[in-house]
Each structure stands twice: as C-alpha cells, then as structure tokens.
Specification:
- Strands 2, 3, 4, 8, 9 and 10 form a six-stranded parallel β-sheet that branches. A two-stranded antiparallel sheet has the order 1-7.
- It is globular, with a radius of gyration of 17 Å.
- It has one domain: TIM Barrel (Alpha-Beta Barrel).
- The protein has 252 residues and is an alpha/beta fold.
- The relative contact order is 0.21.
- The longest helix has 18 residues.
- Helices cover 38% and strands 15% of the residues.
- It binds zinc ion (ZN).
- The site of zinc ion (ZN) has 6 residues, from loops.
Length: 252
C-alpha cells in the first residue's frame, strides 16, 4: 500500500530498523524439511477467488492477514474480500491471520491503541466465526515497532515483517522475514533463487503479496507468478504450509 512521508514516516522507519536488530523472541526452527508459506495481506477479493482456486489445484493452504475495516470495501487498489468468503476459507483450512483493524501501522500506535486495534480485529473475526483462531500477526506496511514487539509476543505466536530472506536457524518470532510475491519485485528467476537458498538453509520461506490477477496492482502478483512459485515448491518437494502449520512443524 502507498508509501508514507514526513516525520511520522521517518519515526516509523527508525523503529522498523531497530526491530530488525532487537530480537525479543528468539526461537530455533526445528523443521525436518524446507517449508514455504504463502501469505496475503489486507485480503483482496481476488486473493480469495483467483488465488484460492490456484491453491486448490495444488491442494495447498495459504494465510490471509485481515484488517477488518478493509473487508468488502474498495481500498484504492483492489476490492476487499467479502466477510462470507473469510468464513468459507477458514472452514476449508486456510488460515485467517491478524493485521490491525484499521490498517494503522504498529509504529504509529502506543500500547493502548495497538491493544485496542487488535482487540477490535479479533472481535470482528470471532464475530464472523468463533472457531477462527487469531494466532498470527502481520505488521501493516511491514513496519515492525521495536516498542510493540514484546506486547505482540503476549498475544500472537508470530508477527511477520516484509524484510526479505529465508527464516532459518534462530529467528525472531515477532519479526519473521518474508519475500514479496509481487511482480514489481520478483520474477521467475528470483523465485528459483529464493528456493535455492531455502534448500541450502533447510529453512522457512514466507512469501507475501496482496491481489492475484491477470493484471494485478503494483502490490500484487499475476496468476502465472503464483503458479510458478507453487510449481517450484512442488517440484523441489518443499512443504507448503500455513504460517500456523509451519510454526508447529518447526516446534514453536
Ligand atoms: Zn496490509
């Protein structure tokens, strides 16, 4: 989503940068084999429609981070998913994860406001279906707050950043790395390189994206890029897992 400017943006960048270096929740991944998770932020309707029908071809499940306030609305780049699709995908075994309710970045929020945002989003999702487990968080705009990580660790098993790279060895569960599955940032060769690194590290590759379409927004991917990544995983025998399942497989 659109870049932010001015003093708040600078403050956010500094806090995000510090987040990378102050590991609040170190954890050694103990997965037996390389894993990949496909995650989508803000949950555009096209990720639920075009995206999920591709995941079905591979019998694979994805993780969708919802901001309740974006559901069923046009955000300027795509139409938000409908509430009934969230429930349906949850019941089919996809994971519903948590953003902030309003999509405000954690770097802009003090502890009380972040707590209220998370509580509102959780209430919204449990109102759709009380069996939704809201265990994992993604930082809106990818901006991790060095001040809020300890707070997030009390509520979530993990928080996902948008710092690219393979998660392997000791990771910070409240600042997981993820690689853009976004045509503006990654092509087929980039996907192959990411899977090469993944195999070498026996790690956990997390992709993030937004919409999935023949002509996606600047923040989304084409159906063919998504298929290419799923083919690469299948061909290489990499386990495709939701974030929740990958954490379980890693012993977290
Ligand atoms: Zn987002």
């Amino acid at each position: 989503m659109a870049a932010r400017t001015g003093w708040p943006a600078l403050k956010a960048r500094v806090s995000n940068r510090l987040s990378r270096h102050f590991c609040t929740t170190p954890f050694r991944l103990r997965n037996q084999r390389p894993m990949v998770s496909f995650t989508f932020d803000d949950f555009p309707e096209s990720a639920a429609a075009a995206g999920v029908s591709i995941f079905d071809e591979y019998n694979a499940k994805a993780t969708f981070y919802v901001a309740g306030d974006l559901v069923d609305k046009w955000c300027g780049h795509w139409q938000g998913v409908r509430a009934d699709a969230i429930v349906e995908l949850h019941r089919r075994g996809h994971e519903i994860g948590c953003h902030t309710f309003s999509h405000a970045p954690a770097t802009d929020l003090d502890a009380a406001r972040l707590g209220a945002e998370i509580e509102e989003n959780r209430r919204y999702l449990l109102g759709l279906d009380p069996s939704i487990r809201v265990d994992n968080f993604a930082y809106p705009y990818g901006l991790g707050s060095v001040w809020r990580k300890t707070q997030l660790a009390k509520t979530f098993r993990s928080s996902r950043s948008i710092i690219p790279g393979i998660n392997s060895g000791v990771v910070d569960l409240q600042y997981l790395r993820s690689t853009p599955l976004i045509n503006h940032h990654l092509d087929d060769d980039g996907i192959d390189r990411a899977f090469d690194e993944l195999a070498e590290a026996n790690g956990w590759l997390i992709f993030y994206g937004h919409d999935v379409a023949a002509e996606p927004s600047a923040y989304g991917c084409t159906t063919s890029l998504l298929r290419y990544a799923l083919n690469a995983a299948t061909r290489r025998g990499v386990a495709i897992m939701t974030v929740a399942d990958a954490l379980r497989a890693a012993g977290a």
